[in-house]
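Researcher: If only I could read backbone structure tokens as easily as an amino acid sequence. Walk me, if you will, through where the backbone shape changes along the chain. I have put the entry right below:
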Amino acid sequence: MKKNIYQKSLLYLSILFILSQFSYSKDIGDVEREILQLNSSLRIADKIYIGSLDTLKNYNENMGISKNDLELDIEDNLFYLNKVKEKRKNLLEEWKILKKELGNNYTGLIFSENDLEEEKKLKILKLVKLNNVEDIYKAFENENNENGIAKLIRSLRKIKRETPYIYSGELIRKSLENFEEDISFFPEEIQEKKWRGKGQKFSYSGKENINNFYEDNNYSLNGAMGIIEYGIDKNDSVGMILGGNKGKFKSMGSINMNSSYMGYFLRHNFKNIEFKTEIAYEFSELRGERENIISNNYKGNSFKGTIEGKYFFNREKELAFVPYGRLSYLYIKQDEIKENPLENNPILNIKQSIEKYLEGSLGLNLIKTSYFKNGILKNTFGGELKTILNKKIDPLKGKFIDKNKSSSSFYFENREISKVKESLKYHIDYEQKNGIIYGCGLIYEFSSISKKNYKIDFNLGYKF
């Protein structure tokens, strides 16, 4: 039965094609009617050809046609399809000549060459929709010539989905979270009327992959911080954090960041329960690069507020269990981005955007304390589950500027963010009797899009 369908289809196409070979008088109306007829033939031939390919792909012996005959039919379909296309192309050239000769006296069915390209336009718009670049396509509506449209769609899709600037906020967020981890790992008891200081050098490396069709997103942070705390009484203390880091994002493009961090925290003990609150501000200066086009420096201003509660089981003993919960609010503001002009290339101008996050964490630390003649050794093992409870991210909005002319505005696609993240932690601290404290730690993170995220730190502290 399938064979009969293909044979009838081929016969129909053959008749249409043969009819199209008869020479008409050089009347533009006849040429136009033949072109429209060939348009119809092309649509049918294209559907038959695609259908036969699908049939071959899903072939089984119960179809009533041999695989060899089906392959021959596909070859015949392709032959007629190409012949009709060639005939249509020749007629279009003939139509252009006749229309030019008639000039203002032309009164045919087709009023512009674009009308003849309606099928092609529909396919282009379908591709535009498929690639989700309608807004950028409209911004370039005067550039969508036939020869450049495929290149245009590819380049616009690349700009829309692969510009590095959409990852600026994520780089800042990772910086804020890194400082948050350090304060959480401050396990010592409050000592009345005493100071405690700690310096730390840290390095963070993260690799994420949205899907296998895109490059990995690589993040890195290298920095240092200092913490100082004063015990107001045996249950309350106040502290300050100063730090900074150099951050880098690299994937389709790159971002370099320099950040400065300042925060204040309070700790309060009530029996075996400890509460901690922190407020912090981070200032970041960023610079992006996209296909050899470099942005001017742009700024990021971010704020963080954190509330944390811990409960200590067996606090005074050698083995203590410490479950905890943390609630954090992050506010990240990214300023306007302007790219430096590059000859023969349109540049991007991106408006400022704001990101807001409410994050919740649940974790458990196991603290093993060992007492030696010259000091105390603490090993801390931990696990944590962090989730984004709520978020609001302004999509980046930008436009192209070329030779003092600008396109209409369009939106970039938001980056994908993993809602849930797990981490495993280990920290070792040795406190000498003279008050000097040494330490180092490792944190390993994993999520649905993470491939390899880890952080190492080295610490030196002193009690006085």
Summary: The chain has eight helices and 18 strands. The chain has three domains: 23-102, 118-158, 166-463. Confidence is low (pLDDT under 50) at residues 19-25, 109-116.
